[in-house]
Predict the 3D structure of the following.
Amino acid sequence: MKKSFAVLLIAATFGSSALAQTATPAATEQSKVEALLKATGTLYVKDLHDIATAKGFYDFSIEAIFITSPVGQATNFGGARLTVGKNAAVSVIDSDEIAGVLAALTFLEQSSKAAIPIDSREISYTTRGGLAIVLFNDADKWSISVDAGKYSTGDTDFFQDAAIGIKTFRDGLTAVTAWLTSKGITSK
């Protein structure tokens, strides 16, 4: 495990350096929900609905977030707010990103069932708000981490059983979508 963590850390360090030259890092972007919450001179009402809590290595929770800006141009935004780890790092997924995250989780689930003819493999997905979901293989065992490192000191939750982590995340986001739909927000 220590060897694969070191390999993962080295790969992440070199990989992020290479990507930084060709792509804008996700950490500089923000979700639509985050932009509204940070806007000055804006009145908004924020509703949160607890969806799921899971126990990985740390605690991991998913809430649906619904924001209404009742003054001026009335607008509604929604998404999922994930709180991860002992430092309670937070990431937001906009409602229009949820379908993409669910598709990525389906791919990760299918990948986790495959045998890998190499020493290790890492597959990752990052949202506009900086949430990173990473599936990685170590000695023929798949694990998944969820990194909400955009705020505070950041934290990563870790599920040694990738299937449990993927199911928890998918079920939570599906419930968020249903709740947001009841509020008139679609995930398209």
Remarks:
- Confidence is low (pLDDT under 50) at residues 1-27.
- The first helix runs from residue 2 to 20.
- The CA atoms of residues 106 and 166 lie 8 Å apart.
- The chain has four helices and eight strands.
